[in-house]
Specification:
mainly alpha, membrane, transmembrane helix, about 190 residues, transmembrane, elongated, two-stranded antiparallel ribbon, DUF4145, DUF4145 domain-containing protein
């Protein structure tokens, strides 16, 4: 009986180190690549976690397509937005926070635009509100694509294990804030 208790205690105390070793063994290649990266390399441009893949470049592509579809008098290119100019200093000092706050303002502007057109979103998630706005012709398909890219980037930033792993530089945060500002301006301009 005493030998059984000693064996059980020994196995219980070794369980977590064994699990850690197994996890390290299974993920040895991604961990090795992560460890071999240095700060001098260019920032991360693409990340994939499970089925979700996010690219900073997809935002540029979606914005370019939206600009090609719209007329010259529509705001689609990044500029200092009247509604988000206050986030530019935050983008320089705390880029991740700027992305999160800008995304929240996009969500608020989209909800307000839907309600002002008599549309009560069934679900107040950004993805659903974008779909509702597109369905009711408040935004174009290319604008919806830009908004979905912004949403995906926000989600990736929000759920990153380490802020540096997402590649949010002050320049990228400023671009994100300006793009969100363009989308907010687009939603608040008179039709």
């Amino acid at each position: 009986m005493k030998a059984f208790e000693i064996t059980a205690t020994l196995l219980a105390s070794l369980a977590w180190p064994i699990v850690v070793l197994i996890v390290v063994f299974v993920f040895r290649e991604p961990l090795r690549r992560l460890g071999n990266q240095d700060a001098s390399r260019r920032p991360l441009r693409r990340a994939k976690v499970g089925p979700v893949e996010v690219e900073w470049d997809s935002l540029d592509q979606a914005r370019t397509e939206a600009a090609a579809e719209t007329t010259a008098d529509t705001v689609t290119t990044p500029s200092v937005s009247r509604s988000l100019g206050d986030l530019l200093p935050l983008a320089e000092s705390h880029p991740t926070a700027a992305v999160m706050v800008a995304a929240q303002r996009l969500e608020q502007a989209l909800a307000k635009a839907l309600v002002s057109h008599g549309i009560k979103p069934l679900r107040y998630t950004l993805a659903h509100m974008i779909g509702d706005a597109l369905e009711h012709d408040l935004i174009t398909a290319s604008t919806a694509k830009v908004m979905h890219s912004l949403r995906q980037l926000r989600n990736h930033v929000a759920h990153a294990l380490a802020p540096d792993s997402v590649g949010v530089t002050p320049a990228r945060a400023t671009d994100y804030v300006n793009t969100v500002g363009s989308m907010v301006d687009l939603l608040t301009l008179p039709s």
